[in-house]
Amino acid sequence: MRNYLLLILGACAPSILMAGMFSWTDKSGNLVFGDTPPQGVTAIPLNPPKLTVLEGFADRYQAAETEMKAKPPASRAVVSKPKVVVYEQLNVIAPKQSQAIRANDGDVSVALSFSPKLRPGDKIVFNLDGKEVLTGTSKVANMTNLDRGSHTLTVSIINRLSRKLISSEAIKFVVLRSTTLNKKPLNPYASE
Questions:
Q1: Which residues contact 98 (CB under 8 A, 6 or more apart)?
Q2: Which domain holds residue 37?
Q3: Is residue 77 part of a domain?
Q4: Which residue positions does the secretion signal occupy (predicted)?
Q5: What is the pLDDT of residue 123?
Q6: What does each C-alpha distance from 8 to 13, 15, 35, 54 come to in angstroms?
Q7: Which of 18, 89, 148, 171 could in theory staple to 153 by disulfide, Cβ–Cβ 3.0 to 4.6 A?
Q8: 116 is a domain residue
Q9: Is residue 148 part of a domain?
Q10: Is the C-alpha dihedral spanning 171, 188, 179, 185 positive or negative?
Q11: What is the mean pLDDT of each run of 10 residues along the chain (192 residues)?
């Protein structure tokens, strides 16, 4: 298909180039430019200048920019520091603040949102009730066999040196589990 389009364009190109450009004045007195002047109007043929193409111009511009950066001003020394990626935000999406979670097995899923992306070597640390319970690189984690009751979750991102880079706000949630005191399994369809 592409070859057919090139063939048609190649066949039409000489007629397009031969048509030329003209200028004329319309009935309202406006100067108009086009390739086909209307009949009965005095059109002046235009000869636009040839297009100048500078090959590799962008490369020359980037080279000059690099040279300017390489030569610091004589009056002061420039010390370049490596760009440090700073995490702008870290949020716990699930569980929500003050959420009651029915989990008879005690399993609670945690979902995170942060930006920018996790850098190589950085880790996510999940703390539950002040104790580190999980470490990894995934935005989703599953905490298993949590006791019934209230829990506090905080999440941090640490670097290779275990330095805390950012922390989330503390999320408090409640796990609802059936009790084992009544020895009978819970039947939600039984009438009381």
A1: 172, 173, 174
A2: 1-49
A3: no
A4: 1-19
A5: 94
A6: 9, 12, 20, 28
A7: 171
A8: yes
A9: yes
A10: negative
A11: 60 55 86 86 81 62 54 59 73 92 89 89 93 91 90 93 91 85 67 63
Q: Does 94 lie in the same domain as 45?
A: no
Query: Residues 6 or more apart from 41 whose CB is under 8 A from it?
Result: 24, 25, 26
Q: Is residue 19 within 8 Å of residue 48, measured between CB atoms? A: no
Question: Are residues 27 and 96 both part of a single domain?
Answer: no
DSSP state of 192: -
Query: Same domain, yes or no, for 32 and 96?
Result: no
Classify 167 in phi/psi space as left (phi over 0), alpha (psi -120 to 50) or beta: beta
**Is 148 in a helix, a strand, or coil?**
coil
User: Does 186 reside within a domain?
Assistant: no
- Containing 187, the helix (H) or strand (E) segment is none
Give pLDDT, residue 28: 86
Task: Please enumerate in sequence order all residues whose Cβ is within 8 A of that of 119, keeping only pairs 6 or more positions apart, or say none.
Answer: 85, 159
145 and 97 together in one domain: yes
The pair of three-digit structure tokens given for residue 70, joined into one six-digit string: 């390489």
- Rounded to whole angstroms, how far apart are CA atoms 1 and 3? 5
Distance CA 91, CA 156 (A): 10
Cα 188 from Cα 158, distance rounded (Å): 44
Strand, coil or helix: 17 = helix
